[in-house]
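> forwarded from #structure-qc
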């Protein structure tokens, strides 16, 4: 962009005068040299009617799919000691120790240790009676009673509990640690969750007032709270799990679920803005979301009028799928709208910069 020349030489020859007259600009026209537009990556596109969908924008959350998630549970009652380095986001292998649980020093002792002693005593008694049964010294009834006592003691004893190791059933990422170091837990208490994160679930919370929209939903786009990027489920092997038809746990909302392949850039547990996609039609005028600017509650699109001139056009917006937005009024088919790097056109507007050899006052 080049600065405006305050004064012109009024002794132009005939050719120069004709050149000046040919480049006259309206007072409200934004002037940007073609080479500057190219240098700053300002791009435009002809607006034409195209297919677009009914969209309902709602809040939602990204969660791990149930089949890809496992719980690491306490093998015994006692005090938890997390393995050094175990934190949320840590990658672990199947069988890796997440924590150990010890009953030493706990009132009541270690019940599994008592079960082990009882099992070993029952095994010694069974071993003692086995040769006596063969010699006819003890009866079959006495032997069977000893066998039952041993089986019961063995069932009560857990070798895994004896080790005190709480291990991961799958290879994946620790997504949640649910206990604190030194905390007392009962047998079976969840210690952590591990997720493969290869397949994720997107839950969209649809307000009940959109009940009639439910059966038209085909797919969705979403934008995680931590990202400026909008993801398209259709590009991620996504699919609608099942059309929701009943209210969920969140009062006043209907949960709609999708599953999709995690490409490594989506984080489970994050909240997201979800664009639910419904029926489509073929006559919508749309522009990229990035083409629209907003000032004091009014939305604008910049329209290219000539090689050097742009117009700031107020528009009324319709549906928005996170990537494109429908223009209900203010823009006509066949017009050329700025679609990328709108910021530089705005800068030209605010600075009043015009090409050399041009002026708004000829």
């Amino acid at each position: 962009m080049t600065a405006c020349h305050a004064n012109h030489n009024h002794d132009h020859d005939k050719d120069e005068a004709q050149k000046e007259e040919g480049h006259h600009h309206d007072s409200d026209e934004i002037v940007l040299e073609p080479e500057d537009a190219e240098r700053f990556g300002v791009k435009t596109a002809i607006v034409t009617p195209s297919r677009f969908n009914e969209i309902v924008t709602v809040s939602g959350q990204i969660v791990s799919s149930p089949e890809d998630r496992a719980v690491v549970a306490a093998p015994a009652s006692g005090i938890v000691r997390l393995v050094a380095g175990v934190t949320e986001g840590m990658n672990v292998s199947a069988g890796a120790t997440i924590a150990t649980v010890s009953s030493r020093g706990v009132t009541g002792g270690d019940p599994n240790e008592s079960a082990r002693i009882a099992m070993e005593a029952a095994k010694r008694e069974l071993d003692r009676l086995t040769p006596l049964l063969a010699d006819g010294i003890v009866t079959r009834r006495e032997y069977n009673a000893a066998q039952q006592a041993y089986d019961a003691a063995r069932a009560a004893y857990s070798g895994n509990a004896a080790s005190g190791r709480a291990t991961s059933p799958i290879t994946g990422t620790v997504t949640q640690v649910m206990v604190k170091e030194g905390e007392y837990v009962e047998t079976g208490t969840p210690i952590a969750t591990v997720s493969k994160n290869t397949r994720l679930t997107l839950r969209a919370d649809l307000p009940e007032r959109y009940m009639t929209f439910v059966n038209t939903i085909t797919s969705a786009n979403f934008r995680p709270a931590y990202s400026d990027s909008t993801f398209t489920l259709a590009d991620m092997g996504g699919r609608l799990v099942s059309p929701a038809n009943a209210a969920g746990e969140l009062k006043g909302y209907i949960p709609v679920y999708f599953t999709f392949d995690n490409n490594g850039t989506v984080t489970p547990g994050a909240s997201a803005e979800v664009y639910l996609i419904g029926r489509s039609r073929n006559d919508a005028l749309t522009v990229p979301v990035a083409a629209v600017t907003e000032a004091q509650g009014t939305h604008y699109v910049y329209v290219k009028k000539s090689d050097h001139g742009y117009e700031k056009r107020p528009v009324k917006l319709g549906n928005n799928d996170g990537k494109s937005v429908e223009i209900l009024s203010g823009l006509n088919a066949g017009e050329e709208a700025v679609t990328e790097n709108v910021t530089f056109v705005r800068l030209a507007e605010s600075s009043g910069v015009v090409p050399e050899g041009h002026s708004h006052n000829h």
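QC bot note: The domain at 55-65+197-280 is CATH 2.40.30.170 (Elongation Factor Tu (Ef-tu); domain 3). The longest helix spans residues 111-134.
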